[in-house]
Amino acid sequence: MKLKSEGGIELPKRKRNKDDGELDITPMIDITFLLLAFFVVSSKMDPQKDIPLPFASYGEAVSDQASVTLLVTVEENTDEYKIFLGKSDDNPVTSTDPEEQEEEISEFVDKQLSANPEKTTILIKAAGDVKTGTVEMCRRAIGNAELFQDRKIYVGVKEQQ
């Protein structure tokens, strides 16, 4: 069957190619995997995720008297944390730079352990809404202390009454 145009000229019927009905999606798949690889490589995991501290269901208590203690709290309505050297909140870490904070904590631990060699543990008392990255920074700082050696680090949890 031949088609006729307005001027009466017969137009040949267009021949169909077998491949016209299929779409090659290989380049689309390649681009998808390239984008996926890009976002995986360029994304950053959040080490500062909040976790609630659990109640202690078993285990042994750690004596406050035989421990060097750090107190970590979070300011209300903010994500800013405060680290206090000792059992009370009267000796805060003064620096805001994490590296300087680590140095200050290391110096405090060394000073406490040299003054009190009978102290065998280090206790980090962290509030329930303190982020894990902050506790990890304190643990690293304690590990950098020269006198730390074979002592154990404990992170405080709420004692079940």
List its traits.
about 160 residues, Nucleotidyltransferase, domain 5, 2 domains
Can you give a write-up of this model?
- This protein is an alpha/beta fold.
- It folds into 2 domains: 3-42, no CATH class; 55-159, Nucleotidyltransferase, domain 5, CATH 3.30.420.
- It has 3 helices and 8 strands; from the N terminus they run E-E-H-E-E-E-H-E-H-E-E.
- A 4-stranded mixed beta sheet has the order 5-4-6-7. Strands 1-2 form a two-stranded antiparallel ribbon. The protein has a two-stranded parallel sheet with strand order 3-8.
- A hairpin with a 6-residue loop joins strand 4 (67-74) and strand 5 (81-85).
- Helix 2 (98-115) crosses helix 3 (132-144).
- The radius of gyration is 32 Å and the shape is rod-shaped.
What would a concise description of this structure say?
With 161 residues, the chain is α/β, with parallel strands linked by helices. 30% of the residues lie in helices and 19% in strands.
